[in-house]
Amino acid sequence: MPGILPARRFEGWGRMHDRVLKYWLIAPALLVIAGTLLYPLVSGLWYSLHEWKLSDSPALGPFVGLGNYVVAVSDDPDLLNSGRVTLIFTVLSVVCTLSVAMGLAVLLSGNGRLEVNARTLLVIPFAMSPALVGVSWRFLLNPEFGGFSALIGALVPGLKGASFLADPTLAMAALILCDVWHSAPYFMLMFIGALASLPQETVEAAQVDGASRIRLFFEIVLPQLKPVLAIAVLLKIIFSLKVLDQVITLTNGGPGTSTETLAHFIYQTAFRWYDVGYAAATAYLLAACMAVFAAIYFQLITERRPA
Amino acid sequence: MTEGSSLPGAIAAAPRPTRAEPVRLSSRSRRRIAGAARTLTILLVILVFFGPVVWIMLTALKQPRDVYSLSVIFTPTLDNLRTAFASPYFLGSRTLNSIIVTTGTIVLSLPIATAAAYAFSRFRFPGGNAWSLGVLATQFIPPVIIIIPLFVAFRSAGLLDTRLALIIANMSFVVPYSIWMIKGFIDAIPADMEEAAQIDGASRLRAIWDVVVPMAIPGIATAAIFAFVVSWNEFFYALVLSRQDAVTLQVGLMGARTERGDAWEIMAAMGLVIILPMLVLSRYVQRYFVAGLVSGSVR
């Protein structure tokens, strides 16, 4: 124990009792978390109870109680639209991303040279910033000289020369495409890890029985991946609910408000219209939705790893 | 990925034992076709996922007139980069800002995170596990909530459009996540060695520095790569908190949108500078960043 033997260096400080030392060790981290997360969280809640146009005054405006929340849930068609957009985006991006990721995982889980190299290359889209991903796809989907829109035009004649970002439905499709491209590689690696940890015996037994590969996958492999799949679904829901960077750089919510997600709506309200009180209230509504999924997520990961 | 499996806490694809498939005589050619189809599919996947990256890099090196054609054959030029470095795009100062903000975030965050990770790993706190789980839980707060009060606070402190503001904002996600990552590694280091060092007369702080930190280097490296990637890629906080002086590469991308339309060759040139470190580090990014993230979120 410290203090029993003669001290050399770090007199005093270093000989500090563990009971005190442990708090010193976490103090700087707690300071950062308190300052950059807890303080904004609490003061954001306080703002949300006020009417505050930052463009009019740098000081907090009049207290309106739950007024902002009441308007938000009962009387804001734009917010309702954003909620609908977010719901559609979340459902489709979760389903598409995870299906593509699972397909990629099955395809690339081997240790052949091609598979290993493909995995390394596929990490790049995920390591790219969401902002750049949005800009890149804006370029690739340009109807005149975009490489990808030319490819789609060749495959689907109906979409030849279509302006993806000018049509509400196609813009949403573009946003989902861009998100799948960006996040599927991450979930692929998660699934490859899970596939590798499956017991080989069950798979082999099924193969001896002559189960076809596809049936084998759906009846033997997929059920065993359920725990990982559940975590992936929750994580992806949370990621999709807060999607923002790509929205700003790919569509900026348009055309009209057809791709205006909740996070984008809040961003515009706060930093374009400077309606800080209302923006804070809607941000809390979004956070409440995310908290539900985050709570389930934490339930799952603590179950998996008993402390 | 296989190398990654030696890391504690990193989920990696373990080498699969090669099994002799049940051989049916007539199936040889069928298997050959299946193999070819598989190879072709993998190549297609690479085209879809890596093609766009190549396309952006090629565009950066094209002459402006070639940018607006689909040709792959062209005379490469550095003109776009030259234009991007000049006014009004200032790629040079944007790059410098990104480097300073990223480095600053890493240098400030890692010691703070390592100290906290050690404490959470070795000591018991009243409330138990709730502390370290609470640290991770902060990462589920949507950034749009955090940024509003941060913007107001930085504005009244006169810190808007400074690199310091961006570093502080980045620390809000780098510190908690790094604690969580490094703690996983320290958990795997047996406490015997530091106890032995302490019996030999070293203080606990000295034991941490001499014994624990060297053994936790893989974990700290994982956190460093993570911190690098997320700070380098951070867009939203920088978009709100910077105007002119502190604009980073990511926000600079927006500057290539002019009234006359998007200057794609400039965006591509900026994109090239943004992707380059990721390409250079791609092996480490895969081993540490993604593996770290995956293990952090699954365990």
TrEMBL record, chain B:
The chain crosses the membrane at residues 40-61, 99-121, 133-152, 164-186, 207-232, 263-281. GO terms for cellular component: plasma membrane. Signal peptide: none annotated. GO terms for biological process: transmembrane transport. Its main location: membrane. The keyword Nuclease does not apply. Residues 95-285 form the ABC transmembrane type-1 domain. It is found in: Cell membrane. It is a multi-pass membrane protein. Keywords: Cell membrane, Membrane, Sugar transport, Transmembrane, Transmembrane helix, Transport. Residues 1-25 are annotated as: Disordered. InterPro entries: BP-dep_ABC_trans_perm, MetI-like, MetI-like_sf. Belongs to the binding-protein-dependent transport system permease family. MalFG subfamily. Part of the ABC transporter complex MalEFGK involved in maltose/maltodextrin import. Probably responsible for the translocation of the substrate across the membrane. This is Maltose/maltodextrin transport system permease protein MalG. It comes from Salinarimonas soli.
